[in-house]
Each structure stands twice: as structure tokens, then as C-alpha cells.
């Protein structure tokens, strides 16, 4: 029986595998990937690599074979499309005989959220509950690297222009990956949704701008603009309108405090303080 990890080609999936392979023998770990060629590094370490695509349920039967646990990394899709992909993975994991299914959810999972991915996470959690298979939903904090995307234009203009926001407990990929690996290696540690797995402080975009200014030595000021101004700016840079509208929802949800909670669960699980947002930003803005 093996732990099957999906999404090995992504930032979180790769980091989870790196950490998991420090805890378990490679022969107990397998991956399901859309492009096995990109997972050659895992095959070289003794990990079973098979092609599996949520959009092709038949491929998952082979990829999930001999599963004791399956970690479903959330798909890069929203709405009915994303939910159907997740349902396909859940169905395949159950058919493969997995004793537990894990899913990379979000601290803000909520059917009433103003940020489109959050109702999707809530619906996937409901599907997990309906599956009858024991599951763990990893309520991950908001990825700290999102701030780097939000800062991209500000580093050029000196202005972080975005709609009014609220505090967010930004959380590092490395810490979330470590938590997932610990939970996979210690099967059954959490049943159902975990507590919010978050960083140790909640910061808004004014704080993010101040950190960026301090790290780069350049003035960067926070400027509040309307949602329509923000959408127009993104459209002018070639961002599809659907994505622009989704990002506006992120600010609206943060204004309501949907991502502001700070919880000690992540620190307790990994045994050390979560990585501060400053450290994540410093690595990206000042190194190399």
C-alpha cells in the first residue's frame, strides 16, 4: 500500500514530496502526474510515477492503484469544472481502496465567500464527506507568494494600487508542505477539516507595501483604487476579465475578514514558528 500524491509538478506538490521522502521510504510513495516526463527526478529517487489526469478518470485508476492514502491537490480550475475534477479524483481514490483521502483546501473555505475559489473548496469538502471515505481537508492559509504577484506592478511604479483590502494571515508554501507531509506520514492525525493552518500574523496591503519598501530600499506606497479601476488596469495588461473579476473578489473577501484568522495549529504541527511574510518576500525580492 502506498501514499499517492497528485500535483507533483506544482510548487506545493513538489515541496510536499521533498519533505515526505525525508520521512518515508521511496517505495511507500507514488505520484500521479499529467506529464510523467516532468517527474523524472522522482523516478530517479525510487518513487513510482504514473500518468493521471483528473479530466481523464480512467487514467486515475492506474495512477491510484495500491493506494493507502491519496492526496488530492486542488485543480487550477473554478466553478463546476473544478468541482467535477475533484469529484473524479475522489471517486477514483475510493475505487482504489484508499483508507483516507487528503485534500488541499483553504482556511477561507465557505459556500458564501466572495472569493470564487472558496465556495469550490467548501463544495469539495462536502463531496469528501459524502464519499464515505475518511478524509482530511487541509485548511491551508493564503499563500504568501500571492503578495509577490500583487507587488509586480508596484515594484515598477512605486505604487501598490488595489481595491480596499483587509488583513490576511499569509502562509509560506514550505510550512504548508511540511504540515501535509507530517499528516500523511502520521495517518489519521486529523479527521475532517484541520484548524486553519496559517502564519503567525495577519497583514494588509499597506503592511505588504511597507515591507517591500524596506526590503528594496525604494519608496512603495499603498494606493486604494476602485474595483472597476483595478479590473480596467488588469484588462489593459492582458488579464482575462473572468480572472480580473475573481481577483476583485479576493479583496472583497479580505475586507470581510475571511482570511484574517491566525491559528497556532500550523506552528504546533511543524514544531517551529511559521515563516514570516517578510522572509518569503526577502527571498524573492533581494536574492539572486
N- to C-terminal separation?
42 Å
Please give the count of helices. 13
- Give the strand tally: 9
**What is the CATH third-level topology name of the domain at 2-141 and 173-193?**
Rossmann fold
Question: Going across the major beta sheet, what is the strand order?
Answer: 3-2-1-4-5-6-8
**Content-based structural category:** alpha/beta
What labels would you give this structure?
alpha/beta, about 290 residues, two-stranded parallel sheet, 7-stranded parallel β-sheet, Rossmann fold
Topology (SSEs and partners):
Blueprint: E1 2-6, H1 11-20, E2 29-33, H2 40-44, E3 48-51, H3 57-63, E4 67-72, H4 79-95, E5 100-106, H5 117-131, E6 135-140, H6 146-151, H7 154-157, E7 159-162, H8 173-185, E8 192-193, H9 205-216, E9 221-224, H10 227-236, H11 241-255, H12 265-270, H13 277-285
Parallel strand pairs: 1-2, 1-4, 2-3, 4-5, 5-6, 6-8, 7-9
Description:
The chain has 288 residues and is of the alpha/beta class. The chain has a domain at 2-141 and 173-193: 3-Layer(aba) Sandwich (Rossmann fold), CATH 3.40.50. It contains 13 helices and nine strands. The strands form two sheets. A seven-stranded parallel beta sheet has the order 3-2-1-4-5-6-8, sandwiched between helices. A two-stranded parallel ribbon has the order 7-9. α5 links the parallel β5 and β6. α3 runs parallel beside α4.
What's the gist of this structure?
With 288 residues, this protein is an alpha/beta fold.
